[in-house]
Design brief:
The structure holds two protein chains of two kinds. Chain A is mainly α. Helices cover about 75% and strands about 5% of the residues of chain A. In chain A, helix 5 crosses helix 12. Chain A starts with a helix and ends with a helix. The longest helix of chain B is centred in the middle third of the chain and has 16 residues.
């Protein structure tokens, strides 16, 4: 009992409760959407969403992890910038620029052996993504241009530039997508595809999972270390909390803003590299005029994970899990659009997690007060009799 | 006995603290009733309850013996309760007249009937001796006149009970005297006044009775005349307080800090807000820059510490020209700074106390190794400081700084800055908004630092502080140093005249 109390009264618990409440409300609203779209299958469909990636067996879980990889990185990108007081909406641009640079290295740099080839591709993805973050950071630090505006602009520059590069140098005109990278640039599977597999008789339906997820989790832990344990993280957080006081303390707040945005951009860029260095069966860049979803989902991931690198690992996997569950909804005659709406509703409510976090203690207090009031009233009336 | 307002057994809680605990306050008709207490004693909370901004958890409010409920300030106004807030609630670019009628405008077919309002305002201002210029914009008139506009606002709404929240904090001594006579006139005309303050002199000067609060509890109500200041301060603090600062004569040594012809041009008004200021501070002395708020002190300090721009001039610290140095360089060269606004500049409120105590030291060898913070050393150092400087907080050094009281936040800053072992300590209003106990403590620390041979530059608006602490006084008025005074050879009145710009001495360097 006392242990339970200790857990429930801890700060981390109250933080997590906010996120969990948001998720539950989001799910219930999702159910309403399901009922509207197709009443007869609503509950079966809802259970499918809840079952998420598990519906597809081993392969499903593998796919959840594979698609959570870029979300962890874009989530870290938004969360890291947020901790330092910046709102990075530029995940989409940084992400595709990282992706296209990684593919470019994967296709055109040929004479390097396996681990070094994909490592180089990831590093270049980070650098180019970093440039996409540095520009808004510099504009903010030196000219006080609001980063929300400049990162959105960088998204479009990135998207069209990416389309241009794919069409000019990396085009698979048959499928209107980017060409496959060299096998040396493909992230190794390291046996993970043997674990996350669904057997259909003798046919092994393997997932596209690779060591990307391990790299992503490693980077998240590293970012946690940087933020919480180093003087650099101490400075960045101080600038995020109170720019004036950081300046007062002699920190170079302009340099910190630029660095923070560069790192945020690099994280998204690496996310792009990790998703697209995945061989013929994995994802390819499509030539479409649409901003990369992963960039924006990073915002929800960061919010749901309360901008903590460790929280972001879990929230990214969770959102990927829901999205994966959504793909199985099609078996219940749901339009893919309905699935996207439901996932969006849940993500939307995740943004309110902060609000719920503040609301919950208030509600709790009010209910206690009401109970006391009732008690007092009943005692009073009892006394009169 | 007839009371216009009675607040009985008021209890008001905020998360974690009880701001008012079973407090009683009874206001007689036609009296000036002082409400005395340290910061955080619950004075403002109690008045906010009366003004309808908070709802009390327990207790009742009576007006003329009838129980009333005050839901919001609008209703308080209807009941005849008005308030002059510490920070005036005026629209800067409206005229005085527009501000007075704001919210209770008389209209005819949707057009303002300004002429009637003007007549009434002029009538009122004559009746109570509240001289104002009705057609000047608020931003162009003096603080004293702004306050009179606030008082007229209450009178225009025919308020009978007037609450003054620390009204003298922003005024010069002359303006304070004027305000006191206005207050006396108001009660003579049948108004009743509640006067919030923590200055004992003012209570002795005008108040009839005084209610004392301490830590949210009502300590008692006394008649002011037969009660000495010492008794009042003891009631307020709960122990005997040494009101005067004990300090020996200064033994100034060599010059540590030198400012030559420093000017700062305001970005907004393009005027020189700091105009050709020069002075020196020697080791072992406290030099005070006195002046009324807004005469260029903030800009001067920002230029000195590197936080803000300067236009012209030179700043020399220990024979080194630091005019264009970075803030970090100045800090390392021996400049410490207790900032004017502890929340804006002094602290990262969302950091733990320990993190704030190393805000200027985290990069030093003791606290980090190749960029990785040595938390054990940070905590040890923070423990040492909180003990040495008696910084109190709920959960020790892991307390979130935001949740600490203002006095302890300020103590933490003072501890941090003094432990920088500075050559010069620039202290800007170091006791602003603090209670007597904390003020006493910080004053003692500053004098100790002086006696250890540090140079101290004090910027203060509080005349008592200026007179008690400084070894030399420089008076700043509209960005210029208009006088250099010896505290032993001047008095508050003379100082006030210089501060108000009505007196200038020649040949000040």
């Amino acid at each position: 009992m006392s242990l339970l109390k200790k857990i429930t009264s801890s700060e981390g618990f109250s933080k997590a409760m906010g996120s969990i409440t948001a998720i539950i409300i989001g799910l219930l609203l999702g159910l309403i959407v399901l009922i509207f779209a197709n009443p007869s299958n609503a509950f079966d469909g809802f259970i499918t969403i809840l079952a998420g990636g598990f519906t597809g067996g081993g392969r499903g879980v593998g796919q959840v992890l594979y698609f959570s990889t870029p979300l962890i990185l874009t989530g870290l990108s938004v969360g890291f910038a947020f901790r330092t007081g910046m709102f990075n909406i530029g995940g989409a641009g940084q992400f595709v620029m990282g992706a296209v640079s990684a593919i470019f290295i994967g296709v055109y740099v040929t004479s390097i052996p396996a681990p070094f080839h994909w490592i180089l591709a990831l590093i270049v993805a980070g650098i180019v993504g970093g440039i996409w973050g540095f520009v808004p950071g510099m504009l903010k630090a030196l000219f006080n241009v609001h980063e929300v505006i400049s990162t959105i602009m960088m998204n479009y520059i990135g998207m069209y530039l990416c389309n241009f590069i794919v069409k000019k140098w990396l085009y698979n005109s048959l499928k209107n997508i980017s060409v496959d990278v060299e096998s040396t640039a493909v992230l190794p599977r390291a046996g993970l595809d043997k674990i996350f597999v669904t057997m259909h008789g003798n046919y092994a339906d393997a997932s596209t999972i690779n060591i990307g997820i391990i790299v992503a989790i490693g980077i998240a832990i590293f970012m946690y270390f940087v933020l919480e344990k180093t003087t650099f993280g101490y400075e960045l957080k101080a600038v995020g909390f109170n720019k004036n006081a950081s300046k007062f303390a002699g920190m170079n707040e302009k340099r910190n803003i630029m660095l923070s945005m560069t790192i945020a951009g690099a994280l998204s860029g690496i996310g792009g590299g990790l998703l697209f260095l995945s061989g013929p069966t994995g994802r390819h860049l499509q030539v479409v005029d649409v901003l990369a979803m992963e960039g924006f989902n990073g915002i929800s991931v960061a919010l749901l994970g309360l901008s903590s690198p460790i929280g972001i690992i879990f929230s990214a996997i969770f959102i990927s899990y829901l999205a994966q569950g959504g793909t199985y909804l099609q078996t219940y005659n749901y339009m893919p659009e309905a699935i996207n709406i439901i996932v969006a509703v849940i993500i939307y409510f995740s943004a309110f997690s902060l609000m719920f976090r503040q609301l919950l203690p208030k509600l709790k207090k009010r209910s206690i007060e009401r109970r006391e009031l009732k008690k007092a009233a009943s005692q009073e009336s009892g006394g009169e009799k | 006995m007839e009371y216009v307002i009675e607040m009985l057994n008021i209890r008001k809680e905020f998360p974690g603290i009880v701001a008012n605990d079973d407090v009683n306050l009874q206001l007689k008709k036609g009296e000036i009733h002082a409400l005395l207490g340290e910061n955080g004693a619950g004075k403002s909370t109690l008045m906010s309850v009366l003004f309808g901004m908070y709802q009390p958890e327990k207790g009742i409010i009576k007006k003329n013996g009838m129980e009333i409920k005050i839901k919001d300030p609008k209703e308080a106004n209807k009941l005849g309760i008005g308030m002059v807030h510490q920070h005036f609630k005026l629209v800067e670019n409206f005229t005085a007249l527009q501000n007075i009628i704001l919210g209770v405008e008389d209209t005819k077919n949707g057009f303002l009937k300004m002429e009637d309002a003007r007549k009434r305002v002029i009538e009122l201002s004559k009746k109570y001796g509240l001289m104002i210029k009705p057609d000047e914009n608020i931003e162009d008139i003096t603080v004293g006149m702004q306050q009179r506009v606030e008082i007229l606002k209450m009178l225009y709404r025919e308020n009978e009970i007037l609450i003054f929240d620390e009204p003298t904090a922003v005024l010069t001594p002359q303006e304070i005297e004027e305000l006191m006579s206005i207050m006396k006139k108001l009660v003579k005309e049948g108004k009743s006044i509640l006067f919030i303050t923590h200055k004992l002199n003012e209570i002795k000067a005008v108040a009839d009775r005084c209610t004392v609060l301490r830590k949210g509890k009502g300590i008692g109500t006394v008649d002011v005349k037969p009660t000495t200041k010492e008794v009042l301060s003891e009631m307020m603090v709960g122990r005997k307080v040494d009101l005067a600062v004990n300090k020996g004569t200064a033994k100034p040594g060599k010059t540590i800090f030198e400012v030559n012809n420093l000017s700062v041009i305001s970005k907004r008004s393009k005027k020189k807000v700091v105009n050709d200021v020069s002075f020196k501070v020697k080791e072992g002395e406290i030099v005070c820059i006195a002046g009324i708020d807004g005469n260029g002190q903030s800009e001067l300090v920002y230029a000195l510490t590197g936080m803000g721009p300067y236009h012209d001039g030179k700043i020399i610290l220990n024979n080194e020209d630091v005019t264009d140095s970075s803030i970090r360089h100045r800090n390392i060269a021996g400049m410490a700074h207790i900032p004017e606004d502890r929340h804006k500049d002094g602290l990262v409120l969302d950091y733990k106390l320990s993190q704030n105590l190393v805000l200027k030291k985290y990069f030093k060898e003791d606290f980090q190794n190749r960029g990785v913070i040595n938390f054990a050393n940070v905590d040890k150092y923070a423990e040492k400081l909180t003990e040495m400087y008696d910084v109190r907080s709920g959960q020790g050094i892991t307390t979130l700084t935001r949740s600490m009281s203002g006095g302890n936040q300020q103590k933490a800053i003072v501890a941090r800055e003094i432990e920088e072992n500075p050559e010069i300590l620039i202290a800007v209003q170091p006791t602003r908004g603090l209670d007597v106990g904390a003020i006493e403590y910080i004053h003692r620390q500053l004098v100790n630092q002086r006696d250890e041979g540090r140079a101290i530059l004090l910027i203060s608006l509080e005349l008592d502080e200026v007179m008690n602490l400084s070894d030399r006084i420089l008076v700043i008025y509209e960005g210029q140093i208009v006088a250099e005074l010896d505290p032993n050879k001047t008095n508050v009145q003379e100082l006030g005249l210089y501060m108000a710009g009505s007196k200038k001495s020649e040949g000040v360097s």
